[in-house]
């Protein structure tokens, strides 16, 4: 090599300095942490929305069927599932059981109910999600766990009970208030924590 080539080669560094390498690795680490937190937050939000959506769709479907068939249906929310089934007339219930709600008056023609096929549907719920219910004019959240179940009656005419459903996972939660006339979501609030 001649002298001119040696001077050019010595004047230009051939690699990165330690400071540049540390800076780039730090930026890559910050980007990876940010992406991980973002993906986790989006995943939690999606789980909460799917869980609340299953309950809300069963209530909405039950309300539509109840209006179409002109008979009461019930949505039962248990620890592992939410189910839809017809609510039977008071005349078919035991006389001594006064804990059951009033559903039909005696002037309902039960022969017209046989024109429709009874609809039964059950959907499994996400076991990672905790479900809580707040009834109308109450400040107490009742957790659905163990043998505890919520039975939501959908009469074919009139209003339904305006309950509020809260689905939570860790510190994140989604709260939906059910509209008493349409059985649709009236109000929604959500908080997603990392």
UniProtKB/TrEMBL annotation:
<feature type="transmembrane region" description="Helical">
    <location>
        <begin position="12"/>
        <end position="37"/>
    </location>
</feature>
<dbReference type="InterPro" id="IPR045584">
    <property type="entry name" value="Pilin-like"/>
</dbReference>
<dbReference type="InterPro" id="IPR012902">
    <property type="entry name" value="N_methyl_site"/>
</dbReference>
<keyword id="KW-0812">Transmembrane</keyword>
<protein>
    <submittedName>
        <fullName>Prepilin-type N-terminal cleavage/methylation domain-containing protein</fullName>
    </submittedName>
</protein>
<keyword id="KW-0472">Membrane</keyword>
<keyword id="KW-1133">Transmembrane helix</keyword>
